[in-house]
Amino acid sequence: MTSEEETLVATDLSHSFGDVDVLDGVSLAVGPGVTALIGPNGSGKTTLLRTLAGILSPDSGTVSYDGPPSRRRIGYLPQQPAFRPGFTARETLEFYTSFVGGEPEELLERVGLGDAADRNVEALSGGMTRLLGIAQAIVGAPPVVVLDEPGSGLDPGMRRRTFEVTRELADDGTAVLVSTHDMLLAERFADRIAVIEAGSLRAFGTPEELFERYGCTSLQAVFDAAVSREAGSVEVIGQ
User: What backbone torsions phi and psi does residue 71 show, to the nearest 5 degrees?
Assistant: First the structure.
């Protein structure tokens, strides 16, 4: 990734919760396209995403934005999006767009919820709630969108739909960073893969670069190889 393509850059991020070190010197550059963040449970993925989104402040290190001017630089979807009950999907987005602009109907259509516009948020399925969360994350057309496991707990069809939406966003020039445990969807839809374990970046590159580096033919095999490396060893591919 060239410097011209870097929209959000993290440098030497470290963060601890009490005596537990969750991030340990993570450096990662995110640019236009889909970057999939993969790692074992407890590896620091959510903490990294929350730090990049500006929700958490790192104990050390920096996060810098180098994208185009925007009223909303970064959109964020947490693992468990929640919306105020008693409001429809349309009314929910009307609230958010009142701050930074955008058309609720257009956003709902974009994520595939056009037919559910008048459904109350508490009546939405889990998958629909995640899609509404993605719609909320892209209100104001932020150049960077950070999605924390948008397909977690969903059926295969809905998981695929969340990745199709991320791919469409990326094709329009958005820098999308998405964490996932679904190796097949990450391999299919992501332009770049970042592997994190124990709070450290283990590998980064395109799927093809990682296949070549590790002598593998699947992302699952890359993951298995990368997370088995000794702590402190980082493989950054294609920089």
Answer: -65, -30
Angstrom CA distances, 86 to 3, 27, 63, 119, 123, stand at 46, 42, 37, 10, 10
**What span, in angstroms and rounded, lies between the C-alpha atoms of 213 and 205?**
10
Q: Considering only CA atoms, which of 184, 145, 181, 180 is closest in space to residue 166?
A: 145
**Each residue of 112-171: pLDDT tens digit?**
999 999 999 999 999 999 999 999 999 999 999 999 999 988 889 999 999 999 999 999
Residues 6+ apart with CB under 8 A from 184: 219
The amino acid at residue 128 is: M
Give all domains of the chain, ordered by start, each with its CATH number: 3-68+145-236 (3.40.50.300), 80-142 (no CATH)
Residue (of 151, 84, 158, 79) closest to 121 by Cα position = 84
Q: Which two tokens stand for residue 196?
A: 């994190």
Query: Could you tell me the strand order of the sheet in which 175-179 lies?
Result: 74-77, 144-148, 175-179, 33-38, 192-197, 200-205, 235-236
